[in-house]
TrEMBL record:
Belongs to the pyruvate:ferredoxin/flavodoxin oxidoreductase family. GO terms for molecular function: 4 iron, 4 sulfur cluster binding; oxidoreductase activity; thiamine pyrophosphate binding. Gene3D superfamilies: 3.40.50.920, 3.40.50.970. This is Pyruvate synthase. Residues 265-369 form the Pyruvate:ferredoxin oxidoreductase core domain. Keywords: 4Fe-4S, Electron transport, Iron, Iron-sulfur, Metal-binding, Oxidoreductase, Pyruvate, Transport. Residues 526-648 form the Thiamine pyrophosphate enzyme TPP-binding domain.
Length: 751
């Protein structure tokens, strides 16, 4: 069949395969380094190159649910994730395999937090081993394409009917371009896979009702799991069958285990994915010196290719297993133990097996590293026994002489107390009255963040945060959820934070800080710590954190802990590359809501987070922006008072993002002011259930049309074109509806 020669990355080939297959649906959530796949598919969708329904989830757990729901209807379904994204959806994976609904998911492997590291290793892949999914491993972009095509055929085979993971190395295979071939006509791909099977139970036919996921007792559950286990083992035979058919079609072969010069190898390396390609060059060099070296790399690890490994190791005297993840405390990673178990079944095998944990967090694997692995194996061969069967490779002991010195003396207590801000509760109205001095008077108050962070030029996060902190007196403990503000201020061994900063992931920041708050006060009560109790606890979130972290935020608010939740809203998942967030306005362009002949940006309205948080009945909710600094500082002071006296406060700051908004850096304040004056982002507060608009552009005769705000941003300029007038009108009507509702609440305190 005719194939096109190109130069593409693994992510590009995964997206291309999905588009050619033309899945019914993809439920997704952006996480580096798999994010590109959804972005590429969105670009193709905008150009009309496939019909896949792309559903942006509120988090990976939600994306797994979306995909499962589609599979139970009998649809063909696709997904992609990485690292903590896999961990967040992990409990859903056995649900799908245990009920036998096929789909394909690309796992672009990456180090699991903590600490956070966005580059590639296999710590996420190893967590997938016990989920009941078939797992294929792809060493190259070519293999990513080919295995994505084979994966669906395997998944849907009547002897298997299980979901399949295609795993490949993040930032190595996913982003590095290599020469590839792909079928010119997608009909070739679709013909190879075949028609969607319709003779298995699903939820789509009301004339044939089914119950999916009924609970079972042990007698039934053991039968269910036995059948699932047998199906997974049968997937090995089906893989062979499908690989043979695919080789006839494409000319590319994929055995269980890729063997490179293993026929007579005495020393060999076992490596998963991209590292194996690096080691092959070293094998050639060693062979030229008369050393019988080889490399083996699996194309499938679930089911584990035990027999293929036994056959490959017939002559191997020393096998070094290189693993990009550890199984802590087990004296070797997961692959080591499975290989040892496989070899134990051969009573004649005398292979010495070594383990070296390497390449964690995306640490590169060079030919010299492969040489070191072979040298370790050769030394073991010479000694005849394994002096050190298990070890790490590439770790470096610390040197006390190189200890980093603190650049800035710690600041605390009075250093952050200006004495210029007064917050008084009105005894009659029970509302807080705040007096703040002119901004000039607060310039002497030190910043909470030191200079030297890595934010983009014109980023609105730090002007917004620093203005907020001007209104906070005294010490703070700050928790940053993952996002731009966290990433650009903490990169070990550096930190821009002058006071204590804690990090946790998007989905659990509020819960984490609530635990810290309650532990602090309980230790104070018991006398375990002797510290002033006027510390303010602040959680900073943004970049979609109030999407994936919404459940945690609402739970924390309902418990009413004494803390502040502060959201900076840049209208997207900016830390992963400007993907759509639920705070992205309708029609706005992001990297996953592209503009083209069949779509015009985001398809639905933005989430009104302040109103959601107000509905939890916390004492104080506010909106603010740096374009109105006095208003922001006053609200920060109020938030602190409520957090110290009554419970949870929540604030939302609209901030600019020139890079992803495609706006000029110098217009940051103008854009924020225009957002307020157009009533897109009204300034108000909800204090003990009563709503007050703190700035009314209509009363001041400063209200402007929505277009006056949109024109500043490249991401929204298409809305000003005549062909998109209907979408603009829908946007204007929603802004007006929310504004009128807010004014009604302002005028009628009972609402």
């Amino acid at each position: 069949m005719e194939q096109v020669v190109a130069f593409e990355s693994g992510n590009e080939m995964a997206a291309l395969a999905a588009a050619q297959i033309n899945y019914h649906l993809m439920g997704y959530f952006p996480i580096t380094p798999s994010t590109e796949i959804a972005q590429l598919l969105d670009q193709m969708k905008a150009r009309g190159e496939h019909d896949i329904i792309l559903i942006p989830a509120d988090g990976e757990h939600g994306s797994a649910g979306i995909c499962y729901g589609a599979t139970v209807m009998g649809a063909r379904v696709f997904n992609a994730t990485s690292a903590n994204g896999l961990m967040y959806m992990l409990e859903q994976l056995p649900v799908q395999s245990g009920t036998r609904f096929p789909m394909v998911m690309n796992l672009v492997t990456r180090s699991i937090s903590g600490p956070l590291d966005i580059r590639g290793d296999h710590s996420d892949l190893y967590f997938a081993l016990n989920t009941g999914w078939v797992i294929l491993t792809a060493r190259t972009p070519q293999a990513v394409y080919d295995m994505n095509i084979m994966a669906l055929k395997i998944a849907e085979h009547e002897d298997v009917r299980l979901p399949v993971i295609v795993a490949y190395d993040g930032f190595f295979t996913s982003h590095q371009k290599r020469k590839v071939q792909y079928f010119k006509d997608r009909q070739v791909v679709q013909t190879f896979i075949g028609e969607r099977p319709t003779h298995f139970p699903n939820a789509s036919d009301p004339t044939k009702p089914v119950t999916i996921g009924a609970h079972m007792n042990g007698d039934d559950l053991i039968n269910n799991h036995y059948q699932q286990s047998e199906a997974l083992y049968r997937a090995a035979h089906v893989f062979q069958q499908v690989a043979k058919e695919y080789a006839q079609l494409s000319g590319r072969e994929y055995p269980f285990v890729d063997l490179y010069k293993m026929e007579d190898a005495e020393v060999a390396l076992f490596l998963i994915n991209s590292a194996a390609e690096t080691a092959k060059d070293v094998v050639d060099q060693l062979r030229a010196k008369g050393i019988k070296a080889g490399v083996m790399s699996p194309n499938m690890i679930r089911p584990f290719p035990s027999e293929a490994i036994r056959q490959a190791c017939k002559h191997v005297k020393v096998l070094l297993v290189g693993e990009r993840a550890d199984s802590y405390g087990a004296h070797g990673g997961n692959m080591t133990h499975e290989i040892k178990s496989a070899l134990k079944e051969d009573p004649h095998n005398q292979t010495i097996v070594l383990t070296r944990i390497f390449g964690l967090g995306g640490k590169d694997f060079y030919p010299d590293d492969a040489k070191s692995f072979f040298n370790i194996a050769l030394q073991t061969l010479e000694k005849g026994f394994a002096e050190k069967p298990f070890d790490y490779f590439g770790h470096v002991p610390g040197d006390p002489k190189q200890k980093w010195e603190q650049a800035i003396e710690p600041m605390y207590g009075d250093a952050f107390k200006s004495g210029l801000i007064q917050v008084i509760e009105d005894e009659e109205t029970k509302r807080l009255k705040v007096k703040v001095p002119p901004l000039r008077a607060l310039t002497s108050k030190p910043k909470r963040l030191a200079p030297g962070h890595g934010a983009c030029p014109g980023c609105g996060i730090f002007p917004g945060l620093e203005l907020f902190f001007k209104g906070i007196e005294g010490d703070v403990v700050v928790l940053f959820q993952t996002g731009c503000a966290y990433v650009v201020t903490t990169a070990y061994p550096y930190s821009s934070h002058k006071q204590t900063m804690i990090h946790n992931l998007f989905q659990n920041g509020p819960a984490t800080l609530s635990g810290a708050v309650e532990a602090f006060f309980e230790m104070k009560r018991r006398g375990d710590i002797q510290i002033s109790d006027d510390i303010t606890f602040v959680m900073v979130t943004g970049d979609g954190g109030m999407d994936i972290g919404m459940g945690s935020a609402i739970g924390t608010a309902l418990r009413n802990h004494k803390l502040i939740m502060l959201e900076y809203d840049n209208e997207g998942y900016m830390n992963t590359g400007s993907q759509m967030s639920y705070s992205t306005p309708i029609g706005h362009m992001t990297s996953t809501t592209g503009i083209g002949k069949v779509q015009k940006g985001k398809a639905f309205h933005h989430k009104d987070t302040p109103q959601i948080m107000a509905a939890t009945n916390i004492p104080y909710v506010f909106t603010a922006t740096e374009a109105f600094p006095q208003d922001l500082i006053k609200k920060a002071a109020k938030a602190q008072w409520y957090a110290q006296h009554e419970g949870t406060a929540y604030g939302k700051l609209l901030i600019t993002c020139p890079l992803n908004w495609k706006s000029e850096e110098r217009y940051g304040e103008k854009i924020m002011k225009a957002a307020v004056d157009s009533c897109f982002f009204p300034l108000y507060e909800v204090e003990r259930g009563k709503t007050t608009i703190t700035y009314d552009p209509e009363e001041k005769n400063k209200r402007i049309p929505l277009q006056e705000w949109l024109k500043y941003m490249g991401k929204a300029k298409h809305l000003l074109k005549e062909e998109n007038r209907e979408l603009l009108i829908a946007f204007e009507q929603e802004v007006e509806r929310r504004w009128r509702r807010l004014k009604a609440m302002h005028e009628h305190p009972g609402l």
